[in-house]
Design brief:
The chain has about 130 residues and is α+β, with helices and mostly antiparallel strands. It has two helices and eight strands. About 25% of the residues lie in helices and about 30% in strands. The strands form two sheets. Strands 1-2-3-8-6-7 form a six-stranded mixed sheet, covered by helices on one side. A two-stranded antiparallel ribbon has the order 4-5. Helix 1 runs parallel beside helix 2. The longest helix is centred in the middle third of the chain and has 18 residues. The two termini are about 15 Å apart.
């Protein structure tokens, strides 16, 4: 059984996808960027500000699913410029407690020029 997760505290999907899907005890959060859900625009600044907003968006989606960042088991990070890795990593460390989830980080070319980082996660979160 699977169900869509939706919240107004994260950006609305920009296409035919859900913010997240709960499938049994797992929550799969779609790739999120540094978009402020109240304005629908990317936050100003650089990769630090976008990473922080991205993780806040993910946190809001997980909360709407009855979960939290503490239950994240896998993270994928996509960076427009791999030179931003250390900056992203510093902000990332503020959001995840030890032991941190497994992670993959890659450099990519985004369709949206303003996007500097995109992150998706999988959380193991048994229904309570």
């Amino acid at each position: 059984m699977r169900s869509a997760v939706k919240t107004d505290r994260a950006p609305k999907p920009a296409g035919p996808y859900s913010q997240a899907i709960r499938a049994g005890d797992f929550i799969y959060v779609a790739g999120q960027g540094g978009v402020d859900p109240s304005t629908g625009k990317f936050v100003e600044g650089g990769v630090e500000e976008q990473t922080r907003q991205t993780l806040k968006n993910i946190e809001a989606i997980l909360k709407a699913a009855g979960s939290s960042l503490d239950e994240v088991v896998k993270v994928s990070v996509f960076l427009k410029d791999v030179k931003d890795f250390q900056t992203m990593n510093k902000v990332y460390a503020e959001f995840f407690k030890a032991p941190p989830p497994a992670r993959t980080t890659v450099g990519v070319s985004f369709v949206v020029p303003e996007m500097l980082v995109e992150i998706d996660v999988v959380a193991y979160s048994p229904k309570k």
